Amino acid sequence: MLEQIRNRTQTTLAKVILAIIIVPFALFGIDSYLSSVGSNVHIASVNDEPITSNDLQKTERQFIDQITSQDESVDPKIFEGEEFKSAVLDKLITTKLVNQEIKNSGFNISNNQVGTYISGMPEFQRDDKFSQELYDEVLKINNLTPKKFDNSIRNDLGSQQVRDSLRKLIYTPKSKIQSLVNLAYQKRSISIFELKQNAYKKKIDLSDDALKKVYEESKASFIRSDQVKIEFIIYSVAGIVPDVKVADDVVKDYFTNNINRYQGNEQRRAKHILFNIRSDMTDKEIEEIKTVALGVLKSVRKNPKSFKKNAQEYSQDPESSKNGGDLGFFSRGDMAKAFDQAVFTMTKNQISELVKTEFGYHIIMLTDIRGEQVKFQSVKNQIKGELLFNKALAEYASNAEDFSNTVYEQSENLQETAKKFNLTIQNSEWLSFDDAKKFFNNEAFAQAIFDKDAITEKRNIAAIEASPNNLVAARVLDFRPSAPKPFEEVRDSIKDFLLEAESQKLLIAAGAKLIEDVKLNPKAINWIDELVIDRIDRQGLSDSLINAIYKMDASQLPSHTGLFDSNNGEYIIVKLNKVVTDDVQDKDSINTYYNDYIAMMEDEVESAYIVGLRVNADINLNLNQ
């Protein structure tokens, strides 16, 4: 049974579906997600509790974000299929069922339990303590109220109680699985012989007569779908950029005013003497403080070595004054703006004028510099590119509506729009609906150019933002309805298909005959490999071959089987010579198998529990909405 479960979860889609079943949400479960969405069209109901299209869409996005963050290699197309959507809806239905059962069965999670759990969540920890500020911030980001979040945690803890209760139903002594462990670690001695598919390809008749016969017999398989040819124009930010100008002095000013963005890895170390100013002080009091500060400034400039002593005596920054005013190393942007500007324009060991910030007056001495300061020339092109793009983006936003209106008003052609916006009209090859979807990676565009009116009237379709900052207008030039593809167009594909399919048939037939021959005459095969395998040490054999070997009848040896391997284009004949089933004593091996077995049983019990809830529930689907 374990092997069957593993076999069912090998494909990428199966793994994604499995992730939906078992992966927990990082912080906010499905129930909390549902509680934050508004009413919408009902696509399902569970005992009269609705699940809306909004619920499904939001939960799909949540799962997609979760899955892709864990595995970036997942093909995004998987998430477009009906199987994925069905799995998400199934998960929503299961969540509803479990939450309803928790309520009906009287499972109770107290406010104290919820509070204790939340206060211990690592997402809300700062310096190993619960942070109310962090808690408020995270809930705000996720658009949740404390009540909604408490309810989601309560449901999660209730679900966990259900799982824990179900797991208590499972008990299997380790001694009872000894025979299963022995089978899991059973060794099999085998011999292998391979037949190559390529050897049979030269026997296939690939004459035109043979190809035409396949063509005539399978004409329905060679239907070309409806196709259109279009002309189109693109109004885009990328197209505007080459005509935009930005002067060098504008680039320089931007660098100066936004230098914190380009700070590099430079850090500076300084010490200061702070003369604190409070908001409730009078002008006279502030002037008196300034006079004292100027006196201290004169003193430290006369004798820089006295800076430490003066900081300890006068500075009202309690932390740094203990260290003679030393602030350590810091990066640009870490300090108050005026303080920051002063420090990053000073030279080493220079003492500043009085610098006023919201904290008061500072006397600053720059003591060290490390790292590299970003020079204007090194980022000039980067900044200029950003400014050019932003300027083009503004022009695009300003003209987008005018572009769309012109396309609509001059709908008999694209020439007027192209001339007005200095665009080039481009022509496509023949496009099917799927080709059109891929053309701009936009299904709405494909639907628009395949619209009946667009085809018959050959007028401009409405401008579509096919992708961010790219407006596309198009017009159908020609249309050809679906029809069988001519033989010459599909000749090569038929040849490839025939070569593969017929050689595979010959190969499998030859393999099956050879197995029968070797049963009568053991010398009919000169075995090329003799191996001893088990399910752990597979000797490089594929999963499918291992499964076939362990399904072989061991009651009368030797026994034989064959397997076609489409990945390598070969037919593999296996002779089972010997089976060794030892009594496994290794505790680690037994524990590993036992834990897998118990986990499998827990999954089966939980699945049976869910099936039971479904049988007794009133579940209605309305997927046409």
Summarize the model shown.
This protein has 625 residues and is an alpha+beta fold. It has four domains: 2-171 and 615-621, Orthogonal Bundle (Triger factor/SurA peptide-binding fold), CATH 1.10.4030; 187-221 and 488-580, no CATH class; 227-239 and 396-481, Chitinase A, domain 3 (Roll); 264-373, Chitinase A, domain 3. The longest helix is centred in the middle third of the chain and has 34 residues, at 376-409.
What ranges have pLDDT less than 50 throughout 5 or more consecutive residues?
A: 1-11, 13-39
Which strand order spans the largest sheet, edge to edge or round the barrel? Answer: 16-5-18-17
- Number of helix segments? 25
Quaternary organisation of the protein chains:
single chain
Name of the CATH homologous superfamily of the largest domain? Porin chaperone SurA, peptide-binding domain
CATH topology of the largest domain: Triger factor/SurA peptide-binding fold
The N- to C-terminal Cα distance equals 39 Å
User: Using only CA atoms, what is the Rg?
Assistant: 37 Å
Pairing-aware structural class of the strands and helices? alpha+beta
Strand content: 15-25%
Share of helical residues: 40-55%
Envelope shape: extended
Determine the mean pLDDT.
85
